[in-house]
Amino acid sequence: MRNLLLSVATVLMAGATIAAPAQSAQLPKGAARNIVLVHGAFVDQTSWKPVADILTKKGYNVTLVENPLTSLEADVDATKQALAKQNGKTVLVGHSWGGVVITQAGDDPKVSALVYVSAFAPDIGQSLATLAKSGPATEGGAAIHPDEKGDLYIDPKVFPSAVAADLPPEIAESLASHQLPLNHTAFEAPVDKAAWYDKPTFYVISTKDKVIAPEVQKMFANRMKAQTTEVAGSHASLVVHAKEVAAVIEKAALVK
Predict the structure, then answer these.
(1) Secondary structure of residue 136 in the 3-state scheme
(2) Is there a domain that residue 23 lies in?
């Protein structure tokens, strides 16, 4: 999975990652210098590499959290460990399931802003299972099934069109066959904190998403009073639209 996603990043983002001018490494005065990126279910942290490369070249200190995906508690703990290593203001970013994680973990005093990218954004007492039942059904949501161990996967036959329709077909199919499972206990665990009540919040809405319906993403963003940006991408917009996503994170880094 790691090598595959690194290959995706290299192919799709070669031009963008090379294009950053040298002088851009000087960050704006007062900007949060630390960015912590939390990945979603079924993939690993290298799904964030295109965005991380852009931000690193601009001078940000970027950390990719490696979620174990075994429980909400475990993923929140991994994120808190990453936050503990940051020195100063930090922007905390989550994609998909990662939105649940940052909602719970984002109350850390170092976190200056939250960014949700095609992400679930629960309120206190809500779980991913609760959110999955709200709003219109999606092709990707309907394709999530447990195996005999209770681990959740997206049907590999559905994954390419539902999750990554704007990636090359051979890449999407390979991602489908190399999924990292999300344990069902994570799916069912409610958050008992909602950091977005107290933190400046941003949301990147993927208008062609077939996992989290765009109208549901808009509902999350409106409820959080988030600053929103729309990209015409699939659930994999953090890869395909990495430049736009990175730009939103940079905007969040400027929050006073």
Answers:
(1) coil
(2) no
> Which DSSP state fits 255?
-
Which residues touch 125 (CB under 8 Å, ≥6 apart)? 190, 191, 192
> Domain range holding 120?
2-7+31-253
Confidence check: pLDDT of 16 > 50: no
Average pLDDT score, the chain? 90
Start-to-end Cα distance in the chain:
38
Nearest 5°: CA angle at 52, between 241 and 164? 35
Name the residue among 210, 203, 74 with its Cα closest to residue 138. Answer: 210
Which CATH number fits the domain that encloses residue 50? 3.40.50.1820
Q: Which residue has the tokens 């991408």?
A: 233
Looking at the domain assignment, is residue 16 inside a domain? no
Measured distance CA(212)–CA(118) in Å, rounded: 7
Phi and psi for 230 in degrees, rounded to 5?
Answer: -105, 140
Tokens read off for 183: 């344990």
Please state the domain count of the chain: 1
pLDDT tens per residue across span 174-232: 989 999 999 999 999 999 999 999 999 999 999 999 999 999 999 999 999 999 999 99
DSSP character at residue 131 = H
- Model pTM score: 0.90
pLDDT digits over 58-95, tens only?
999 999 999 999 999 999 999 999 999 999 999 999 99
Q: Is 18 a member of any domain?
A: no
Query: 85 phi and psi, to 5 degrees?
Result: -90, -5
Length of the chain as a residue count: 256
